[in-house]
Write a structure and sequence with these properties.
This protein is an alpha/beta fold. 30% of the residues lie in helices and 23% in strands. The structure holds adenosine monophosphate and 2,3-dihydroxy-benzoic acid. 2,3-dihydroxy-benzoic acid binds next to α9 and β16.
Length: 571
Amino acid sequence: MSTGPRTDAPTWPVAFAERYRAAGHWRGETFTGVLRERAAAHGDRVAVVDPANGRRAWTYAELDERAARLAAGFTARGICSGDRVVVQLPNVAEFVEVVFALFRIGALPVFALPAHRETEIGYFCSFTEAVAYVIPDRHAGFDHRALATTVRARTPSLKHVFVVGEPGEHTALSDVPCSGDPDRETDGPAPHDLAFLQLSGGTTGVPKLIPRTHDDYIYSLRGSNEICGVDEDTRFLVVLPAAHNFPMSSPGWLGALYAGGTVVLCPRPDPGSAFPLVAQEHVTMTGMVPPLALLWTEAAAGTAHDLSSLELVLVGGAKYSEAAARRLEPALGCRLMQVFGMAEGLVNYTRLDDGHETVVTTQGRPISEDDEIRIVDDAGQEVAEGDFGHLLTRGPYTIRGYWRAPEHNRTAFTEDGFYRTGDIVRRTENGSLVVEGRAKDQINRGGEKVAPEEIENIILGHPSVHDVSVVGIADTYLGERTLAYVILRAGAEPLAAVAVKRLVRERGVAAYKIPDVVEFVDAFPQTGIGKVSKKGLRSGAAPDPGSATGPAPAPAPVVAPAPHEARSDRH
Ligand code: AMP
Ligand code: DBH
């Protein structure tokens, strides 16, 4: 049995919780209640469409019924309130079913990405003491069952592996549901209870887990829906992995379900897969990262598919260049909204009634009038209006601490509860935020976040390696890609760049973390006090060879060195 959420994760002080309730932000809803209400109000409306393997469409009544039966099956197998369950599913209907079943019994989904491999999954399972792991049989050419076997063998808490598809030695998810509603036996989660653990892109050797409650997350959905105009007629296409916070909640598939709309799951994000679905399913809204928005913009000109149902495309997760932003609306024939969000909470949107210049040049403003924003210098003092600085935030859907991470929380949050986003922003005259760069030691590879320390630790494990520094360099398409500078030990066998990449791949991490470029150097650039300077490494990086998409955005400026950069003793 788990320790309670109160000890696992810092929560809002009582005075703040009361304020957020009094303001009507937290309305005492839970995901289970929301689905049940929607099923009662309009049970025959389609909730989820899964176009792969023969089109499946579940109504709200069916989804609610399926979630109830699966929850009963999970309960019968001993999964209880507070238990953690690592969910690693691609964009398939079962994803939605599993998540609502876990919500129903108060077990916490831990949202792994389909790209995660042995290192990440092993960590999530052991760190959260997960009791179950839910996988597809194969996805994108990878057999998840073999990975599950390995992880299960070394994770004592892990009692169940549930497989969508052919189970192999594990349990087929389709064998789990049974009749009987577990809600009759338990009270179900309360609105202030944790609903799930999201992942942070992170800056450290291991990803941090983000504890979100029903109340706070549902508030962010309601706010997002209002801003984006999501209602029962919305047909939302999930093109990014459904487990990611952006397609889940901004406004995402959970926002669409909250509004009584329809969620269409897209198995692959490329225009060749997505455009036919937009046409067939009359998709009205979707969200994507900037590199994908570029692809869609370019492909739209020559497509035979009818994209005229599209009303709004949200772009975020990484900085969207102004030049690319200007091209989206004419190419796709719909509105653009920029979104700058984070799984820790705060989400900013440009607004439908913003002027065009604001939409193409800013990353919007917060959802809530109770989102508190501070823009401060390195010493923590507020900067002059319009100047750039570190973005700190606190509010009704921004966490007060990571899950089981008291040490890290001491530096990631201020004493008065503001989250240090690590982003460098400025505020324009009309109150919109512009992301200018970041101070955190993280690479944003087209929206996929890479913590250099995690990759450095793997490369440092090679006997020929004396030291390594992984940095982001400008890339026209991705915004940034990863470069590993490697210093070999004196007299060590020479090492090929491909061997370094292979080392990272064989460690079993998500493919997007494998360095794009490896360079061997004799020394890193030094700062005045003799520490490794990532800023120096970035500015010394070779320029991107370029492509047809216009000038590359500058690499993110490092305003303040992250603590990690102060290491000088790794030998
Ligand atoms: P995570 O904390 O892993 O959810 O990642 C959130 C981070 O992604 C933010 O703190 C930003 O660094 C980055 N990000 C998200 N949206 C944008 C955007 N529209 N422009 C620039 N950076 C973004
Ligand atoms: O990058 C993100 O994490 C992100 C981007 C846009 C996010 O979590 C969100 C919107 O909700």
